[in-house]
Amino acid sequence: MEIKRPYLMFLGDAPDPLAAKTAYGVAYWRPDWCVGQLRLPGCQADLKLKDMTIAEAQGAGVKTVIVGVANRGGVFSDVWVDVLVEALERGMDLAAGLHGRLRDVPRIREAAERCGRALFDVRHPTRVFPVGNGKKRTGKRLLTVGTDVSSGKKYTALAIELEMRKRGMKADFRATGQTGVLIAGSGTAIDAVVADFISGAVETLAPDNAPDHWDVIEGQGSLFHPSYSGVTMGLIHGAQPDFLVMCHEPTRRHVRGLPHYALPTLEECIEANVWAARRTNPAAKCAGISLNTWQLSEADALRTIDEIENRLGLPTVDSVRTGTAKIVDAVV
Amino acid sequence: MEIKRPYLMFLGDAPDPLAAKTAYGVAYWRPDWCVGQLRLPGCQADLKLKDMTIAEAQGAGVKTVIVGVANRGGVFSDVWVDVLVEALERGMDLAAGLHGRLRDVPRIREAAERCGRALFDVRHPTRVFPVGNGKKRTGKRLLTVGTDVSSGKKYTALAIELEMRKRGMKADFRATGQTGVLIAGSGTAIDAVVADFISGAVETLAPDNAPDHWDVIEGQGSLFHPSYSGVTMGLIHGAQPDFLVMCHEPTRRHVRGLPHYALPTLEECIEANVWAARRTNPAAKCAGISLNTWQLSEADALRTIDEIENRLGLPTVDSVRTGTAKIVDAVV
After folding, report:
1. Which residues of chain B are under the pLDDT cut of 50?
2. I need a surface site. Which of A4, A18, A95, A271 has the fewest CB within 10 A?
3. pLDDT tens column, A176-205
4. Does A131 lie at the interface with B, CB-CB under 8 angstroms?
5. B96: domain CATH number?
6. Same structural domain, A264 and A179
7. With an 8 Å Cβ cutoff, is B176 touching chain A?
8. ipTM of the complex
9. Is A193 on the interface with B (CB under 8 A)?
10. Distance (Å, rounded) from C-alpha B228 to C-alpha B241?
11. d(Cα A215, Cα A235) in Å, to the nearest integer?
């Protein structure tokens, strides 16, 4: 099930840019797919795309309207529904990464059925996955992992895919979260899968491939995060990564959302993730470290990158400031 | 939601005792709750309980009919449905640990609604769980873990609950699998929870309690099992165990169902599980080892128990042959 392109980004009445962070992620990584944005009165987000009505989007050949904004209190307002129903009636599909489901809104579901259009609730996998079997698959795999949630795992994986493709390598970003799925046009929000099928879902997401093909798999959570470690563990075992890239936000002082939990050190976090990965791929190793240094000045960021690279003896980058070339060099 | 007692055990037309293993587990651990069994023609299972019709069960005060048998191909035959509908009409609830759901059988759902009876599909949690928060809870907790699936985790936890209660300790078995839920009358089949909520579901299952109260939590899967390690990891973090008991089947040569995976050694398995547990309870330690030696002669079993106890320096038992007193001694 691939989400059809190009996209119109629906920003609704986003109260601030953060509410539209999914839309920003898609527009940043897939500018060629995003031909316009639709903003309702009061919208405080702006992707700097051409503002379009649904009719104009139809004229521009839009195939899918991406609901790239959090809806307030999980509720779809009538104004939203009017716009989204018009999109269905004008022949476009809808895709959303919300907690609530498009198909649970009666007018939207009814319009989709009547018009024969698809609804992609990417946070709610509907397909059935097999139980993981741990069998060795062909092709190469790289998985981003992290010392915490929100440490740059998606961004780093996308940057590595980009770097690999620039070099003419066969590489596909494999999305495991809702924003990633909208960026890739396919994938599975792995945290929404039933627990017994986590590793099986990842095996399905990154199946046998050509020996020189790279799956660059988006990581989730952290082995050290008391809320999400189960997702991370199943993801690592299902991914069978040849290489891990450890993502880290160097100014963070405790686990995000859990001030009573200290972050692990990079050393212990690498050791634990490599240990877990070797269960399904005995050759697994850490290829390098990707720091998210947006909170630091350029000088402090570069100094931190140097310090960590020297301390750990592993290629260390910031996907934004330095690019990921050093890590791709290390894995090829 | 507590399943009401006493139970009538419905064995259907089980082709062999293995098909009724859930029923055997409930009848073994909760003989006082099981007042009879109902077997259809051809049934090859026998719990040695009084055979009863639904009308006789009603007369005996049965509150819930337990569907303790795997249905062939996941299908409910008309004969099954006739019996189960009669039970609803005579005022009993139904509980089942099947892959298919009672409430998905139209005649059963309709009868339950008409008669105001409850349907417990214990393999399909319907409630919403919070995301785990890792906050320290009061009370004591013991979690069984294993070198593999089917290594005696449920049996050991139930045997420890029994031993603790014999000593007058406050102890509750906390069920995390479908048979366990039917034995406890409550609990959560943790492998059926959405991945993001594994640890949160366990936090809910074993909440704050009196300082001298023990939650004896049923383990699932294994950190070394490529199919289920995510469930195990989330379960360990959510349980915050003070003590782990490592369960092991000493004749097993590879991971059950995955001949391409060797079992971990007891030493590495204990180290990994204690490491994981210490993330949410820094005082966690391994209290002992519980061997499932049913495949060995009495002499070989006792020799194996001795050997492992001497090698690891930890109390080692077989829940059936020796009881769990040595482990309970170690934790008090």
Report:
1. none
2. A18
3. 999 999 999 999 999 999 999 999 999 999
4. yes
5. 3.40.50.720
6. yes
7. no
8. 0.94
9. yes
10. 19
11. 14
